[in-house]
Structures are given as C-alpha cells and as structure tokens.
C-alpha cells in the first residue's frame, strides 16, 4: 500500500492550549491516546501491587500477610482493576493513536466526545481503588460480583457498581467513536478490505463493546436494586435466582474476553509481517476469522457455568460451541506462522513479544479447550487450573501484544528509538518469570487447589512458593519497561519516518514524531 501524503503542514501547532490545559481540554487523538496509555499503565501497576500482595500471602501455607476478608477484597479488586482499568483502556489508547494514522483520517470522528470518554475513567478508578478505604472495605465477591455475595457486601460494593457503570459509559462512547471513524473517515482509495488488520479488529471489537456493555450495566443495576430497593432478581428468599445473575453476567463476560484479545490479534498482525518482511498471509481469512470469533462469542457464555446444574443438553450445546470457536482462532495462528514461514526475520523487541505472544497464547488456548469439555471442567472448576488458563490468555495474550505494539510504535509516538537492549531484557525477563509464575498453577489446579483461598494444604506449598518468586520477578520486570519508555521519551537516537524497513501503511508516511495535525488533506491510497 503506497501513499502520497498531501500537504503535511506543521504550522498549526499554535492553535492548541499549552501546559496542563492542553491535556484537560485536548480533542487531539494523539494526546487522548497518550493519556489512555499513561492511565492504563498506572492502573496496571496498582493492580500488580494487589497481585503481589496475594502472592505474598500464598508464599507459604497459613495466614502471614493479610486477613482472609482482605484477601478476598484483593482478588476481587485485582481482577476489576486489571480488566477495566489496565487492559481495556490500553487498547483504546492504541486505537486513538493509530486508527486515524492508519486510515489517513485527520482525527477521530467525535473529538470532544473522545475527550469526555477518557476523563470519565480517572473518577471511576478513584471510586474503585477508594473502596478499600470505606467502612467494610472493598467488594469481596470476586471480579464477577456474583450474587448472592454481592447483595450482602458493604458500601464498597456500591462504589464498585458505580465505577463499572462509569467505565461502561466510557467504553460505549469510545466504541461508537471508533465505528464512525473507521466507516466514514478512511482516505480516498482505502476500501475496507485494504485497511490494516488492526483497524479491522478494532472495528469488530467496537461492535462487541456496544452490544455487551449495556448487558453488564443491567446486571450490576439489578444487584443495586436488590441491595437497596427491595427487589429480588437474585435473592432466592424473594423468589429470585442467583444463577440468573451468572447468565446475565457471562453474556457480557464472554464477549468481553474477546474484546480484550481481538485488538491484540490486530497488533500482532501488524508486527509479524513487518519483521518477517512479507505481507500478512491470508488477509481476507483473518478478517472473516475475526468476525466469526465475534459472532460465536455470543453463543458460548454458559461454559463458565457447567457446575450450576445445567441440563445435559445445555452442557453439550455450550461445549460444542466453545470447541467451534477454537477454529477461527486456529486459522489466525496458522496465518501468523505462515507469514513468518521463509520470511527474512529479525527479532527486535516488538517481534520478540509477538512471537512470545504466539507461543504462550496458543498454550492458553489449549488449556481453554480443556476447560471447555464439560466433564473435565466439572473437576477443575474454581481451581488454580482456571487461574493458569486465563492468565495465559490475558497476560501472555493481551499484555504481551500491548508491549509488542508499544515498542513497535514508540518511535512514531516519541520521535526517538527506544533502547533495543533494554527492550530485549524486558522481553526475556517477562516471558521467563511469567511461565515460572503461572505454569505451576496448572499442576496445583489438577491436584485440586481451590482459587480465591488465602490458606491451603501444605502439600501445595512448593508450587506456590515457586509461583510467588516468579510473580515478584515478573512484577519487577515491568519496571524495565517503564524505564525504557521514559528514557525513549526523554531523548535518544532520532527515529526515521519509517524506522522498520519491513513496515507498510500510512502511519509510516508521516514524520516521527507524528505531527499534532497529521493529514491536513487526506492521502491518496493506491
């Protein structure tokens, strides 16, 4: 895809406010993208501190560090902070930065709404983290907020419900903005089937967000009315059904899993062709596979509920539907491997994280298939096997792809090349410590260790000690990333407009760093 940029004028930088107001009032997609990325990294560190507290408690049997009630608050808040505060806003930050650059648009479609959808997040984060400090503490019902536990909690639960609502509004506005931008603001000549795959995965993700965030809002609103207004949606004493909550929650929750992984697929689909120096293998099949995953994700929600006394027919349906969703995912993995096949590959930090993603995410996919088989799932339900599975998918999936994308586009964002040795050190520390942390959890789960428990049978002690050491190593490894980014922002080798020789796409036709106003006139795509 070659492009002829028209009139890239950079004389317009004096229009926008400076200092603090530049960030508060900004409607520029790059500034807003940067704020999303900074916010998500702060939340990532705070969720990480919670995780390390959990692991410190589990280093040995017995109660060492925290009380059981606080332990349950930590597991709940770690999940909520990481999902709604770290992973999702980080991908929205990438979307804000990259989509206008990739499709040749001047900005996002609704620039003021874009600003608002970001500034809803900090108050929601304050509500969420602040719930630790109210009487009764934070919610301790697990990140899924299952009734009837969530109906019995203190004020911290109401704060969590409010925070989830605000973050949901932010997500819906961001998603509408992405859909309108991608459908209406592409440069002349850029048809949908010429779009970079990152734009495709985000377009499909945005539709998922618009479809399922209101479902979550409905679920937590029903909890709220059960708690304060005498309704009995989930209260069995009043004729309600706690299992109904699980159905409503997972109808949101399973598409949500794909909301957190599809943009990661998009990033990896940009990075691998660049460093293999070959076009992406099977572009059209990648687009169709992404769409199939999105559609199928609405049909598999009850595979989280095999132990709720579902009829055998229901178990069979959800089991087979879940196995089916592995097919389009397998298509993607095959296409990435085929892209690398006989390419002239080099392994800079973005490629290392993408290849690491491929290995470890595929492993998480296999353990997911094992969890999908109802009779096996009944054995490993709520054990550490499930914890291992979803961390392999979420940490090695979403997070590694985010790191890959960050290293890939940092030169375009900052105008400087990052320190390659530090990037590689970050990758090797991350992947080694990640596996030391989460691989033993498969064995713990198979041996029957339940999750969300602060104390455990001494026979699980060795694997827990290994996992805790790995977790602290993994947590400290992320400080390398922070240092690398700060060092890159402050200076270093100047980045060319196209720092990677295999890179394709409109974002590499503009100078690095990308100017405040990118495309004064839309580029022509040939």
UniProtKB/TrEMBL annotation:
Q: Which residues cross the membrane?
A: 35-56, 76-97, 118-140, 160-185, 197-224, 244-268, 280-302, 317-338, 350-376, 388-410, 422-443, 463-486
Asked if the Swiss-Prot or TrEMBL record annotates the protein with the keyword Magnesium, the reply is: no
Just give the chief location class.
membrane
**Compartment list:** Cell membrane; Membrane
InterPro entries cross-referenced by the UniProt entry? Cyt_c_oxase-like_su1_dom, Cyt_c_oxase-like_su1_sf, Cyt_C_Oxase_1, Cyt_c_Oxase_su1_BS, Cyt_c_oxase_su1_dom, Cyt_c_oxidase_su1_bac
Q: Which residues form the Cytochrome oxidase subunit I profile domain?
A: 23-526
The record's Pfam families line, in alphabetical order, gives: COX1
PROSITE patterns (alphabetical): COX1, COX1_CUB
**Annotated pathway, please?**
Energy metabolism; oxidative phosphorylation
Query: Is Ligase one of the keywords UniProt gives this record?
Result: no
**The reaction(s) this protein catalyses:** 4 Fe(II)-[cytochrome c] + O2 + 8 H(+)(in) = 4 Fe(III)-[cytochrome c] + 2 H2O + 4 H(+)(out)
Q: What is its EC number?
A: 7.1.1.9
How does it sit in the bilayer?
A: Multi-pass membrane protein
The domain of life for this entry's organism is Bacteria
Similarity field = Belongs to the heme-copper respiratory oxidase family.
The protein, known as: Cytochrome c oxidase subunit 1
Q: What species does this protein belong to?
A: Niveibacterium microcysteis
